[in-house]
């Protein structure tokens, strides 16, 4: 009889008896008591605690977490409902880059609320990610078509950071020449949060930001770039052709922050001289969410593609010559180029880019134009009504936003607020009003009534109001079939489902990506993301309407402070990379505040994730690499030697703990102390926090600041490559330097000096913080600590099962691994077998490969997480072992060196069901190598993708994809 059955028969304690029937930890943590016992036995460990004691160095262990006790799923939801009810949904006319939108129901239910979409990972394994790659190709096509530029990436984190990245890209384009080109002009009519972020980013790079009026500013030889907004933040639309020509005349690059909906009616930026266009796709069906998450975009000229930040989807071909998509130009990314990378962006905003692209697919070019014309007509009507009331409005043409002057603003705001309406606060005599897709004629009448007038008669002039040359759009857009086929709900539903079916996600099997922590994203954690009390709030809404959010932030900050052992937390950075950047800026400000602004050396171990050096470079730091020893530890002697050598200029070290080699280094405290002894700070990359929660913490170890990837340790789903959140925790001496925000300050300590903004919204992607709140609230201190222990158990179990087949590369002093393990496949290379062959072959077995070739080339880094049961771990290990047998067959000559199931993996249905089959192995071996896939087969949509071909023949839009298909036909 299994142990769990015995336990069930024992008399329960009263607290066990009365525990809620929907207790969550049992659902989140995979192995039950019997499975844990079996795994511990296999590891020769007397108990889970004994295993953990042997794994985590005793001198870094912490006391039990001081967090509220766990609630059942329904009780936690009820408590969160209480917070939600403290948020008030006022109708927003604030604008400033955030607008109401109708999320089509079919997109909400089949994408946003669908684990088949939201639990997928970044599409590195392209053959099992063709669905989201196609949706992202649509997104890129949408952006290139509307901006009139040649190439667009697959999303940026938000509009403000996209503008800052554009500035940095232009700065890089002047490389070698940068000292002569230090000035960057920013129009004062850009959104204030954009200006805030650009200023923050410019400082460490020595860029001088000039804020002014583009009508009076003359670009000079020192100007490397200019940034303007179109339509601008006041609503006015300018013709920038002359200004851009003047900028180009002195060799400056031109950047436009713009609005995709407006561009359906307005001349495309690429047609009046823009080199780069950035903006947000939020109003394409993505709720405001009190600031995010949303997809931003960046488009530019083909000539600049190698300097572009962010991920890019491109079309290539597969092993059968069929078109297949994959991430292109990976050589620009941090993983390869480290401190020379084009940006530090890793997790982007894929799910939101998918939603926005689907909104465009659903409406099509005509539907989008209709929405835009309607918004524009209502805005024209509003302008007429306000003028007749004696108010002044923009002299220039407008699209959806008016700046209304010559009025008594206090009274207007009071009247509006009394009707639960928010207008943009500007000054005593001026208010701003933005309209959007959801605005009705009755609402326009109501707005006019606040100014003491009535709506003018509807005339055909108003209804047909459009733009005239040179502002009017003349070029076609979204002519590709995908934007013209799926305008009924049935067609749309089936298109979304067809794409979903091409993608392997956590709904199919475990995704053991080391360092990415693909744990359960529970349904109860996801429910509140759709609640309007969280989704429908504008990020700059008055604080008395957002008390529920305020409490949610306070709760999370308090809990994360306890979990990290730090003094304060900032929830602003909206990805781990952004947390790294923010944390390093905090360190930089700290040194400056002590008159030590010269400290600019950042030590980074060679095992670090590529975002670390990329972020450090953005801070203007000089990177000094530190070696690792044979056991995977940071080479302590090398670290100390480098710290000593650079003592005077040492700014910080960036370390990941447990290291990306999957071990708890026992010397960690000593290393931190050594850095401190030279006046340096310790930045901890918290991506591996899943091995620390409840057992140790960055604060206990001696770090000064760390980021947390809430989309790893704290259950925000990866969304196919975003969204995420990367809040930072800091020790008390760094708390005064946390990021601020020009509109709504998220800083508690308001009197003190703090950084400028690092994200467009004060609390980053606020609406997905509910997921992490639910996780911590449902797990409680015991559940969270148990999760960490089981994550360690699961990793050690996998390591133990696989080590007879694949050497486990690194272990701690006691022979155990942390929450992940690296298995070595390098030895097979001499037999012509690459780690990639095994990775692709796993797809035939229904699995996503572990992290491939990071941090060590030719290896798999396996992180099973606590959420997988023994059954699933065994199924994965069985697949790995079976693949080992196939590799062995190549070595013995039983299988052909080239014509074997590994080299031909993955096998598509098309290949396996073809009339002709000439391979030396059977079709059964090809596609049904295990019982699991005989029961439930996931078919890779395409065969092995040719990366090199795609980079040589770069195609990044649907238009190119069709041209490719036509050429082939
Ligand atoms: C995931 C990861 C990062 C980057 O975080 P994002 O949230 O993707 O920006 C940095 N370091 C390590 C070790 C990681 O695993």
From TrEMBL:
Residues 787-907 form the Glycine dehydrogenase C-terminal domain. Its EC number is 1.4.4.2. Coiled coil: none annotated. Residues 26-451, 483-748 form the Glycine cleavage system P-protein N-terminal domain. The keyword Oxidoreductase applies. Pfam families: GcvP2_C, GDC-P. The modification N6-(pyridoxal phosphate)lysine is found at residue 712. GO terms for cellular component: cytosol; glycine cleavage complex. It catalyses: N(6)-[(R)-lipoyl]-L-lysyl-[glycine-cleavage complex H protein] + glycine + H(+) = N(6)-[(R)-S(8)-aminomethyldihydrolipoyl]-L-lysyl-[glycine-cleavage complex H protein] + CO2. Keywords: Oxidoreductase, Pyridoxal phosphate. GO terms for molecular function: glycine binding; glycine dehydrogenase (decarboxylating) activity; pyridoxal phosphate binding. Its cofactor is pyridoxal 5'-phosphate. GO terms for biological process: glycine decarboxylation via glycine cleavage system. It comes from the Bacteria. The keyword Oxidoreductase applies. NCBIfam families: gcvP (TIGR00461), PRK04366.1 (NF003346). The glycine cleavage system catalyzes the degradation of glycine. The P protein binds the alpha-amino group of glycine through its pyridoxal phosphate cofactor; CO(2) is released and the remaining methylamine moiety is then transferred to the lipoamide cofactor of the H protein. The glycine cleavage system is composed of four proteins: P, T, L and H. Belongs to the GcvP family. This is Glycine dehydrogenase (decarboxylating). It comes from Rariglobus hedericola. The lineage of its organism: Bacteria, Pseudomonadati, Verrucomicrobiota, Opitutia, Opitutales.
